[in-house]
Design a protein that fits this description.
Residues 6-226 form the Thioesterase domain. This is Thioesterase. Helices cover 35% and strands 18% of the residues. The chain has eight helices and seven strands; from the N terminus they run ββαβαβααααβαβαβ. The radius of gyration is 17 Å and the shape is globular. The protein starts with a strand and ends with a strand.
Length: 250
């Protein structure tokens, strides 16, 4: 019997792993969702948030379970950078994942480090930025106590993003798929497709309707990931044909 295929989902800046819990229902039999909470986020809020990608990856590695079990690794926005870093780290250990999926994030060499650093150093501007994206409820940002709790991990995450451009971008040794929101003002499709330059096995860019948080605006992304898990569990090469409500650009 094939070992359980684990889908590892990594969150966006300031986000909690809980946003991925409902996606477990999209997985086929033999699929398991792993949504690790990052230090200083969600259920690990009392911990100090980490502001270096390599430190976050080091925290993630021992929480993935059996290293011999097949993995599909997904990350959205900042989580996409962490997913890439995790893929590289696993490959160095001799246990690369079967598939990497990066959503709403371009490769490190295309990041605007100055903009991320400026937001990390200006709490009011950072709150305005987050409010504009709609990822955090307005009442939370309006309450001083709650806002302070939200800002602590957010500022660490944006410091992480500001440092990410210094990262040497290694070739991704496993099938790499990129997802983008057609109306995403933060990381638009023309930026996300930049991963193609770093892919040994390019699965293509899939552009979906929606803004920066398009994975939660329909069930297209969890369904797509479920199909990847099903393919890996069956020992097949992951699908490369976009679903009916996705389109591929090159």
């Amino acid at each position: 019997m094939n070992p359980t295929v684990r889908l590892v989902c990594l969150p966006y800046a300031g986000g909690s792993a809980d946003v991925y819990r409902p996606w477990a229902s999209a997985l086929p039999e033999g699929g398991e969702l792993i949504a690790p909470e990052l230090p200083g986020h969600g259920r690990r809020l009392p911990e100090r948030p980490l502001d270096r990608a390599e430190d976050v990856v080091a925290d993630l590695l021992p929480r993935l379970g059996d290293p011999s079990a097949p993995l599909v690794v997904f990350g959205h926005s900042m989580g996409g950078l962490l997913a890439y870093g995790l893929c590289v780290a696993l490959d160095r250990l001799g246990t690369p994942p079967q598939v990497l999926v990066v959503s709403a994030m371009g490769p490190p060499d295309l990041l605007d480090s100055a903009a991320s650093r400026a937001l990390a150093e200006d709490p009011e501007a950072l709150v305005d930025h987050v409010a504009g994206l709609g990822s955090t409820p307005s009442p939370v940002l309006a309450d001083p106590g709650m806002r302070a709790l939200v800002l602590r991990p957010l500022q660490a995450d944006f410091r992480l993003l500001a440092r990410a451009r210094r990262t040497e971008v290694r070739e991704v040794p496993v099938p790499l798929y990129a997802l983008a929101g057609g109306q995403d003002p933060v990381h638009p499709p023309h930026e996300v497709v930049g991963w193609q330059r770093h892919a040994r096995l390019w699965g293509g860019l899939r552009v979906l309707p929606g803004d920066h948080f398009f994975p939660w605006q329909s069930d297209s992304v969890p369904r797509f990931l479920g199909e990847l898990v099903r393919s890996v569990a069956a020992g097949r090469t992951p699908v490369t044909t976009p679903a009916h409500d996705m389109y591929e650009t090159s």
